[in-house]
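User: Continuing from earlier, I have the next pair ready.

Assistant: Great, send them over.

User: Here they are, in order.

Assistant: Folding the first of the pair now:
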Amino acid sequence: QVDVVESGGGLVQVGDSLRLSCVVTGRSRAAMGWFRQAPGEEREFVAAVRRSGSTVYADLAKGRFTISRDNSKNTLFLRMNSLKPEGTAVYCCGVGLRSDSRAYPSSAASYDYWGQGTQVTESS
C-alpha cells in the first residue's frame, strides 16, 4: 500500500511563486510525478523524477518549475515560479512502481497511486 498526500496549494497572484509538497509512504517507487487538471480538461503532465534522480519536465514547466525530493522525509516537491493564469488547477502527485513508470514518466497511465490533489488558484 502506498499513501500519497499533497499540500501547499492556495490562492496566489499571477507572477508569484509557490511550492507544493507530496508526502509518500509505502513501497519503493520507480518514479514520482506531478500532474495538473483544470476544470473540464484532461490531466496534464507537469514534471517527474525517476528513482535514479533524473528529471523530466513538460514544456509548460521548463525554466519556471523545479521538481525535487527529500528522501529522508519521503517528500516530493514542486517549486513553481512566475505563475500564469492558466496554471489554475488541481495539482496531483502520482507514484509509479513499474518499469513503465521509469520509461514513460510523462504518461498518467504509468502511475499506480495518486493523492487527492491540492488546489492552486491564480488570480490576475
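And the other member of the pair:
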Amino acid sequence: ERQLVESGGGSVQPGGSMTLSCVASGYSRRVFGSMAWFRQTPGKEREGVARINEAGGILYIDSVKGRFSISHDTAKNTWYLRMNDLKPEDSAMYYCAARRDLMGNWTYNYWGQGTQVTVSS
C-alpha cells in the first residue's frame, strides 16, 4: 500500500528539539515534486509550516523561521522537519504532505496520518 507515514512526534519541554520524519512508503523515488509539513490544533484550520521542492526551493511561515528546518533525502524517499527551540504554541498534530508538481502554493493532495507534538513543562 502506498502511503505517507510520519514518525518522531511526542512530548518535549519548551526550548527542546524534535525531528519529524515522513516516508513515502511504496512510492517511487522522485515521484513528488514538492513536500511539506502542516500542523493543526483543535478548533483551528490546518496551516502550512514549511515546504520544499525538488528544485531546492524552501519556504517557512514566519513563526517558525530560524527555528525549524525542512529537508529531503531523495535516496530514502523521506523528508524531515527539524524543530528547535520549541514553544508551547508549536503544540499540534503535524502532517506531512506531498504533490507531484513543483507549484509554489500550499495545495497538496497526498497526506500522512499525522503525528502529535506536545510542548509543555
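Worth noting for the second one:
The mean pLDDT is 96. The chain has no helices and eleven strands.
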